[in-house]
Amino acid sequence: MLTTRRPTMTEPLETVTTIFGGLLLAFLVIVIATTVFGSGSLLGFGHGDICTTQPYTTYGSSQWAVPAGVAAHPGTSINVNGTVQVCAEHPGIGQRVLYTIGKLPSTLLWACVLFLLWRLIRTAGRTGPFTVPVATAMRRLGWLIIAGSAAAGVVQSLALSQLLRTIVTLQDWSPGLDLGIAVVRAVLPIPALAGAALLTFARIILVGAEMDDEIKGTV
To answer: For residue 7, is it within any domain?
Structure first.
């Protein structure tokens, strides 16, 4: 008799997680290679300039010359193309650290999400899909997506705002407002929806696991 291979229970999530994990590793290899052998500065390290943009502020075409109240510090350059884009031509260690802190949280969040997804897949394969360990792993992943996105938004906004202060002087600028916008943009809509969905399904699986235990206890 001919039999067909039963598809893996955790597909296509397992394949997608593997692909994204490979892409993340490839990105890290590129960063290391660029830092060591090239002149790039993907995460602030290396020998290249570092640039940032004034967030959530735009200027009309008549103001694409350097606007009033904007002044570059020595050793920096300004380019206005709807937004104020500034570059430190010879950044110091502190500026490179701030730039790295401003870029790294999102990468670390992705790495943590992929790791918890891998653990969720392994747990489901070992214990079955409708079990307490799977519900626990799913709940952890949901909270990581929500809280991690908010935390990454806070850290990135604070670091890049401080970096911007070291490169250019901006009048009438409210970093506190930028911080609030950054958190909202980081969480809404996809992280909030994905996290809430995971927390909801974790609760459903937990209730199902408890009902299954009750049925087994009465048999």
So the answer is: no
